Amino acid sequence: MSALKLAIIIGSVRDGRFGPVVADWFAAQVDDRFDVDVIDLAEFDLPAELPAVPPAMDPDPARPSGMVALSDRLAVADAYVVLTPEYNRSYPSALKTAIDWHFTQWDRKTIGFVGYSGGTGGVLAIEHLRQVFNELNAHTVRDYVSFPRYYLLFDEDGRLREPEGFEAAAKVMLDQLFWWATALAGARSAAASA
Ligand SMILES: Cc1cc2nc3c(=O)[nH]c(=O)nc-3n(C[C@H](O)[C@H](O)[C@H](O)COP(=O)(O)O)c2cc1C
User: Fold this and answer.
1) Do residues 181 and 79 make contact, with C-beta atoms less than 8 angstroms apart?
2) HSE of 5 in the Cβ direction (CA atoms, 13 Å)?
3) Distances in Å between the alpha carbon of 140 and those of 32, 75, 172?
4) Domain 4-193 belongs in CATH node 3.20.20.330
5) Are 37 and 5 in contact (CB under 8 A)?
6) For each successive 10 residues of the chain (194 residues), what is the average pLDDT?
7) Is pTM beyond 0.90 here?
8) Contact residues for 102 (Cβ-Cβ < 8 A; gap 6+)
9) Distance from the CA of 132 to the center of ligand 1, in angstroms?
10) Beta strands in the chain (DSSP E)
């Protein structure tokens, strides 16, 4: 079987963000069961004004030209890992906008999370994201990676001072994603040819 496609989504877009450091670290944890595509939401147009018609009525609306490549890259992924900071006990609004502009892309796919922030390590953002992805008929895996007070955990070169526990957590999550992505890719394929 060819490698499954894993999209790693950088959920923060602000100047001075830490997200790309987390993305570099996580991408290095992924083994050859997956082909990785790192998707940086800062590279795309994400207008807050959503389509006039709800996705259940028009699942593939016309999108801004600056969003089309994002939509295409999300569509081909078998699994996603969303990297989320925590803003006021939730996840960034740019991430919600990117999610809401899409519908079929998330359908019957599996999703994992890496959170980072102050004391909570992004877990409140992760729990909010689980609710959103339930509505999109996606399966979020149980285990996640969390970096509480990430600024103490990474050094000035973006390397973890004590990586072992975080590497182990990433492996557990990747194993779960592989199981679900394999099962769901097979089920989608069978449904498409039925
Ligand atoms: C508007 C805002 C709200 C924040 N709220 C929280 C919070 O509720 N809990 C927390 O642990 N950290 C909070 N933080 C700290 C961020 O998690 C931290 O700044 C992190 O670096 C943000 O990720 P980013 O640099 O990739 O944007 C907040 C930061 C911002 C900018």
Assistant:
1) yes
2) 15
3) 21, 17, 14
4) no
5) yes
6) 91 98 98 98 97 93 97 98 98 98 98 98 98 98 98 97 98 98 97 92
7) yes
8) 55, 71, 74
9) 20
10) 4-10, 34-40, 79-85, 110-117, 139-140, 145-148
State which of 82, 87, 114 you would mutate to test the pocket of ligand 1, scoring each by most atoms of that ligand within 8 A of its C-beta: 87
Taking the CA atoms of 164, 165, 169 and 170 in sequence, report the sign of the dihedral they define.
negative
CB atoms within 10 A of CB 68: 13
**Domain residues of the chain, as ranges?**
4-193
Token reading at 94: 């740019």
Ligand 1 pocket mutation pick from 9, 13, 26, 117 by most atoms within 8 angstroms of CB: 117
Q: Coil, strand, or helix at residue 103?
A: coil
Chain center to CA of 160: 21
In this structure, which amino acid lies at residue 136? Answer: L
